[in-house]
Amino acid sequence: MSSATAAPDSCASPDAPSAEKMAPPSGTERVNCRVVLLCMFVANTGLFHGYDNGVVSDVFTMPAFREMMGWPAVDDESAAFQKGLTVNGFNVGAAISAVLCGHLIVDRFGRRPALILGSMLFALGGAVQTVATSAAILICGRLIAGVGCGVTSCAGPAYIAEVAPASIRGAMVGIYQSNVCLAIVAASVLNYYDHSMHDGWRWSLGVQIVVGAVTAIGLFFVGDTPRFLESVGRSGEALKILTYLRGGNAEAASAELATVRAELEEERIAGSATWSEVMSNPHFRNVVTLGCLVQFFQIMTGINAMVSFGGTLFETLGVTGL
User: Fold this and answer.
1) Counting beta carbons within 10 angstroms of the beta carbon of residue 51, is it exposed (0 to 12), middle (13 to 18) or buried (19 or more)?
2) What's the pLDDT tens digit per position in 253-279?
């Protein structure tokens, strides 16, 4: 990724407003492609969640993997239990870190450091899984990768939402979610081709190392979000990065940063809301309730079980080659 200090380039839309003019009203603002590329890069962290969830589905059915785990040809009670621990080791790590890292890491140290930490943990977890020689080591690797994924699941969408212009913010965050699904498909395709290889399962799990490491390295070359920098008093750096992301339009960046500053001051005066206040306010209560119910019913459809145990299910049905 380009440094935030780089000079403006031809990447901007040809008809983008000049630096001497104010940005157009919301909804008609010109979008510079450098912010789109940045959002797309950060959205790669969505690959973490999808890939790690989907890859084990067919790895469970690979002959070499089953031999390493000491599983019989047909799952017994012990094999089924270890499968559950392998899948849920990742889920537990992701759930706990996603809940805790928002205040402890993302808001305190910044979105970028959190993303780097999460990406490195994901790569480390992938490495532990790749070299695993027992169920305990494999589950430990899944837990580490899950913690990393939980951190990036919290910081990634926040980073994208804070750097993207309002006109494309939803689309950019949507790319993150799309990458979750694309990674599930990619994991299935790779598992199909290396299913019968002796170390095929290690190749499949090893992809996590590459994806996590490349993302972590790339994140060293981007800045933190202007909103976070402004919130910690680094206004000069915030303006510099925002000007770069808005195609060098310093006047428009200054106006946008002033709006961000006013929002932060309003939040500071209002203070933090308690859960009782959230649930007693109809507007916030409805938003929280709707969001929770959407996630709950999505899980109740059974799609998560299909993603993580689809390979086992299809093998039991005698279906191969999926």
Assistant:
1) buried
2) 899 899 889 988 888 887 777 778 888
